[in-house]
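Sample entry (223 residues):
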Amino acid sequence: MSAQASARTRSGAGARKRPTKAQRQRRRQVVRRRLMLLAFAVVAALLLLAVIVRPFADKAVQEISLPLRHEDIIRQQAEEKGLDPALLAAVIYAESRFRDGRTSPAGAKGLMQLTPETARYIARKSGGTAFVVDDLATPQVNISYGAWYLRYLLERYGGDRAMALAAYNAGLGNVDRWVAAARARGGELTVEAIPFPETRAYVERVLDARRRYRDAYAHELGL
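Predicted structure, serialized as tokens:
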């Protein structure tokens, strides 16, 4: 084969392999369509995954930000003591965030952070003759005693949740003095007028948590 014929053959082969402009455009369009379909498929899969996972994720976040444990004991004690179960749960949340084994620097123990002195007083008043301080590590005993004390405080302050909670945090003696001072001025003690900032913040935190527990755990708390 001559050199000229060989060159024509190579030129012809190269021409057959090189796509035309129209072919290149069609290929680009096919690639774009495939990429768009792939993108739609990925988005759809992510949306489906979000729909499936979201309830579990929301529950996990709720368990961290607003935990609830021992709801059976809370329901039982709230019914027995005539308490709002959401209020009882809110006190536990504010006191210990539902950590059973917590002991404060002041010696308060368990879920509802009862001091040994207060627990012994409750035992005497409620007939717990076999009570020992170590019993406060048991959720049933701790919640039972804490619920009894909360009911006692509510009755002492005429059903006023804020004053009962203030006494739970700061003690009866302090709240009695604050109430007496407010009445001497011709008024009633309000949350805003509580002299201890820590106690004022505690009362506001518990009342806010009560609302949140009623919204988030109505079924679990039997509301």
